[in-house]
Design brief:
The chain is an alpha/beta fold. It contains 7 helices and 17 strands. Bound molecules: zinc ion.
Length: 346
């Protein structure tokens, strides 16, 4: 048998019913703990959306047979699947028996896979899916149910209608609005689709954490001498549309053949005339000036001949006769962005 690729397979995904109108048989009984009914479609739609994402991630093509919130007729759902000639039809539902909560242990429970009595590939897929569904949240496995249902009888491809729990079971009703349960059902059905077609199931990627650009080393500062266009990469023709204005100052993190990289990762070119003045940062930050301890007898305060001046990047911060005062001002300057700190005797 030749290997099938997921890209060659199209899956019809059907979320049973619609959100409105909220027909009594298609919602939970009133649930005191949350103060509302849960429409069946609220669950069906959520699982279908997760399932579609799962299937697409695995490479399958997907046709939604009942898009949007409105209810679609059974005939239109079947027609969409048949017109698109999908390879497999999956319908998501939640079961109900009598529409009442009868108390713990008294309500029906569990999941089931409903197929046309003719069985065939529908039955093969249904059994694989039940195997996966049984691995998740602990629920009763009600097995394959062969019965005449409109959508499974009239679709021309293998078709399975899943009832993933009971709306009139208090515990399972609350599972309907549990996002992890919804995702789990979708994932288990997607795994079953992959197994059915013998294609690899691709797990969801964990969201990537964006690392702070701590490794970036600032090489210097560029001050724009005129408006300078910003480039997406270090070549002409990649303008982003953004422009730095004359007078803007930007730190530069890499220099490569006339292209200067900004913190954002974008570039400005130094050629084509003079776009900016670049002032490199000295390769090593200056050591904080050591303040030599004074002999005790010289600790007389205010002696004008002991004044020392602090200069940060050429700018005079002040002159101080008192050691503590001097130290405090130097430390303050160190917290800021600086290139050079000098302390000189006045
Ligand atoms: Zn239903």
């Amino acid at each position: 048998m030749t290997n099938i690729r997921a890209e060659e397979i199209e899956i019809g995904v059907d979320d049973g019913h619609g959100l409105a109108p909220l027909t009594p048989g298609k919602r939970t009984p009133f649930i005191q703990s949350i103060g509302r009914f849960i429409p069946e479609n609220e669950f069906n739609k959520a699982v279908a959306a997760y399932l579609i994402a799962e299937l697409k991630r695995c490479g399958f093509k997907v046709v939604e047979t009942a898009p949007g919130d409105a209810d679609h007729s059974l005939a239109s759902r079947v027609k969409r699947a048949n017109d698109a000639k999908v390879d497999l039809f999956i319908s998501i539902h939640y079961n109900a028996l009598d529409g009442k909560f009868d108390g713990p242990g008294k309500d029906p429970e569990g999941f089931s896979a409903h197929i046309d009595p003719s069985g065939g590939q529908s039955e093969v897929f249904a059994k694989i899916a039940l195997k996966h569904l049984a691995k998740g949240t602990v629920q009763k496995n009600r097995g394959v149910v062969k019965q005449q249902l409109y959508v499974t009888a009239n679709t021309k491809m293998p078709a399975v209608l899943f009832e993933l729990g009971f709306m009139d079971n208090n515990r399972e009703a609350l599972l309907m609005i549990d996002k992890s349960f919804q995702q789990e059902c979708a994932q288990e059905i997607a795994m079953a689709v992959c197994e059915f077609y013998k294609v690899p199931y691709i797990t969801a990627q964990k969201p990537q954490t964006i690392k702070p650009p701590a490794s970036l080393v600032k090489l210097g500062t560029a001050k724009m001498l005129r408006d300078v266009p910003v480039y997406g990469s270090a070549k002409f023709g990649t303008q982003t549309g953004a422009r730095l204005k004359k007078g803007d100052v930007r730190h530069i993190y890499a220099i490569n053949r006339g292209w200067y990289q900004l913190f954002s990762g974008e570039f400005i070119p130094s050629n084509y005339g003079k776009n900016f003045d670049f002032e490199p940062i000295p390769s090593k930050k200056p050591e904080p000036p050591k303040v030599a301890p004074k002999p005790a007898e010289e600790k007389s305060i205010g002696t004008k001949d002991k004044l020392r001046r602090v200069i940060v990047d050429g700018k005079r911060i002040g002159s101080f006769g008192d050691e503590e005062n001097l130290e405090r001002n130097v430390l303050q300057a160190l917290k800021k962005d600086f290139k050079k700190i000098e302390v000189e005797d006045v």
